[in-house]
Each structure stands twice: as C-alpha cells, then as structure tokens.
Amino acid sequence: MAQKTTKRGPGDGSGRDALIRATISVVATQGLRGLTFRAVAETAGVNNSLIAHYFGGRDALIEAAFDHAVHESIDISHLKDFPDSRDGFISAMGAMLEANSDREIFVYEMVLAARRQPEIADRVAKLYDDYVKTLSAALRRALGDSFSENRARYAFAALDGLVLQRLAGVDPTTVNSAMGQLWDDVMSQAGNDERAL
C-alpha cells in the first residue's frame, strides 16, 4: 500500500500567501523580535528556504505582510464603500476584527516599531495616508464634497483608537456604542443630520 505524502509546497497554497499569513501571526503573537525565518516557516508549515525564494530577506517579507494586512483591513472594513447605515458601519468594523484580529495587531506592532526603527516609519506614514485617503474618498462619495480630508483624518483617528481599544479587551458593547457615536458625529459634520440618529 502506498503511503500518503504530506509534503507541502508552493503549488498547494502553502507558498507565498502562507508565508505572509504566518508572518502576520508570528508578529501578532511574538512581536517583531520573535519574527525569525524558522518561526514563520513553522507557522506556515513550509521549509524556511521558501522565504528567501519568495522574498529574498526579512525586510521584503515584512513589507509584503504589511501591504497585505493594510489592504485586507481596508477591504474587510468596507472603508472604500462607507456603509450606508449606522448599524452597517458598526457591523463592518466588528467583522474586520472578528475576521482576523492578528492582522490588526500586526499593523499596530508595525506602528510601534516605527518609533524604534526609522527605516519603516515611511511605510507606516504611508499606511495612515492610505487609510485616510480611502476613507476620505468614500465619505465624499457618500456625503458630498463638504467632507474634507482633514475631517476624514480626524474620523479615522477616532476609528483607529476604537479598534485599538477593542483589541486591548475593552467590552465590545462599549466600543460599538462609541462607534455609533462616531457615525452620528460624521453624519452631522457633513451636514447630513437626518442620517444621524
């Protein structure tokens, strides 16, 4: 009887994407200091030589994971298409966190690391610019041109803080209530008081 092989390789989904997901998981649980080729490869279930094959080195791996995390977070939170209801907004933010809290923790780890590692500070600044531009464009489409980029930045800062509080263990009901207040404030600032509760 032939024995089944359990070796995994790039063709079965365990290559580049698995390494990116593993990087996010390792950093979320162990911080950047715990990010080794061995830890990533073990988490991904692949040989660590694949990291060099796909990324060349640690910095490129981190950059790829960071880009992946940011774009996935934007997509899942529906920031591109600002939800059209208060409940939809709260639900989208909750879905983002429930889908993969490691992804959000990874992003915050990168933000903190930027203070100690100036070489990634530009990436983190670009991250926030991407979030703000995405939110600003969505709010302009939904609410009109009166919603400035500065208002979007301040709204995103509030949202970012609420996500961080939720990750830190603040009661979800409390955070959701504050997100509802954020929704109300955004609507009233944009001159759309009838959409605020």
Describe this structure in words.
This protein is mainly α. It has one domain (58-195): Tetracycline Repressor, domain 2 (Orthogonal Bundle). 71% of the residues lie in helices and 0% in strands. It is built from 9 helices and no strands. The protein is elongated. Mean pLDDT is 84; it is low at 1-13 and 192-197.
In short:
With 197 residues, this protein is mainly α. It has helices at 16-30, 37-44, 49-55, 58-77, 86-99, 101-116, 121-143, 149-167, 172-189.
How many strands, what sense, and barrel or not for the largest sheet?
none
Domain count, please report it. Answer: 1
CATH class wording: Mainly Alpha
Which parts are unreliable, with pLDDT below 50 for 5 consecutive residues or more?
A: 1-13, 192-197
Tell me the helix content: over 70%
Radius of gyration: 19 Å
Q: Approximately how much beta-strand content do the residues carry?
A: under 5%
**What is the count of helical runs?**
9
Overall pLDDT confidence:
84
Element-by-element helix/strand order: HHHHHHHHH
CATH fold field value: Tetracycline Repressor, domain 2
Kindly name the structural category. mainly alpha
What is the CA-CA span between the terminal residues?
68 Å
Oligomeric state as shown: single chain
Count of beta strands = 0
Task: Give the name of the CATH architecture.
Answer: Orthogonal Bundle
Form type: elongated
